Amino acid sequence: MGYVASVNIAVVRTGSWTGRVGRSGIDKRPSDEPVKFTESGVLGDTVCDAKHHGAWYQAAYAFDTEDLAHWSREIGRELVPGNAGENLSMSGCDVSNAVVGERWRIGSVVLRVTGPRNPCSVFAGFWDVKGLVKRFTAHGRPGAYLAVEEPGVVSAGDTLEVLSRPEHGVRVSDVFALCMQRRKELAERVAPVLPNLPEKWRQQVVKAM
């Protein structure tokens, strides 16, 4: 069973690495204390770009420590929990292959998988890696955004329990492959997930088909 390696919250930074001189909450650091998750987000975290982040279906973001290790090897620099901008650094979970709509209990919180994270220039600037968006997209393991169905508290070391899993079987990585890798041959496979997607993302998926 997978578990939480680290719970991370933002340290707001200002700098040109964002692609412009501005503020960003992508730099997240492990918390030594239990962290409260609410329907509107992670307590103590900060969303600076409300246009692209912070919707109810982006209340939290999870990424695998195994993928952090992969990218550490790829870019020749050690990445630690929080470096992908994730609130939950998960171990042994295979977050990117979770089924969209899957419900998790972690600590006292119930979370629902809503879809993939799409890489952006701020992410590439934070890692200071040219071509990172293209490389991250090609790798196809984006991590997962989560909605909070039942607020509560999460601590490092909490295990992940899958409460339910939709029968459609469409994974986060499938949606990412269709929309970001332009793999239109996946359109038929991904179609059953449409009712489970937030309206904004549903429109994007339909457009990619």
Automatic annotation (TrEMBL):
Question: What name has this protein been given in UniProt?
Answer: MOSC domain-containing protein
InterPro entries, per this entry? Benzoxazolinone_Detox_Enz, MoCF_Sase_C, Pyrv_Knase-like_insert_dom_sf
Q: Name one GO molecular function term.
A: molybdenum ion binding
- Domain spans labelled MOSC: 29-163
Highest taxon in the source lineage = Bacteria
